[in-house]
């Protein structure tokens, strides 16, 4: 990498890190070119040398947040038994990440699409398919070994995706259930039901 590319990558990372800090701590409502640039220590005009607009920068943040979550999921599920048990552990770890960072959950699943993506459909698809991608290897294992059919996989994965999002929305935005211990209990029951784990 030549010096100019290294410098450009460094500058981009300053703005991405600043935007991520704001998103984690304050949410999307406090994201502006001026706030990001000020936190990064540069003028807001400089940001436009590296990003087309704020939504372009948010797309990069979404990718980084998904990488963070993926790292957590991989660590938590490393020793889990392949198949349904591993999907369960992956799903619980995914949920744990969003409970730790409710601002990121809000960015991913509560904010209106045009606020985070504009016309960037890849951002929307990347968010929508995130849990499916985390579990993809396990779903493939189950279908390739004839433990479930493709139709069962589709039904289970979509049920899991929607149920998990519903539980997270109720817990993070309505504080229902009222405590984390009860949230974990309800989550486990629902995941077990979908995956038919006794």
Descriptive terms for the model:
mainly alpha, Arc Repressor Mutant, subunit A, Tetracycline Repressor, domain 2, 2 domains, 11 helices, 77% helix
What does the model show?
The protein is mainly alpha-helical and 198 residues long. It folds into 2 domains: 1-51, Arc Repressor Mutant, subunit A (Orthogonal Bundle); 54-195, Orthogonal Bundle (Tetracycline Repressor, domain 2), CATH 1.10.357. The chain has 11 helices and no strands. α1 (3-25) crosses α2 (33-40), α4 (54-77) crosses α5 (84-100) and α5 packs antiparallel against α11. The protein is globular, with a radius of gyration of 19 Å. The model has no long low-confidence stretch (mean pLDDT 91).
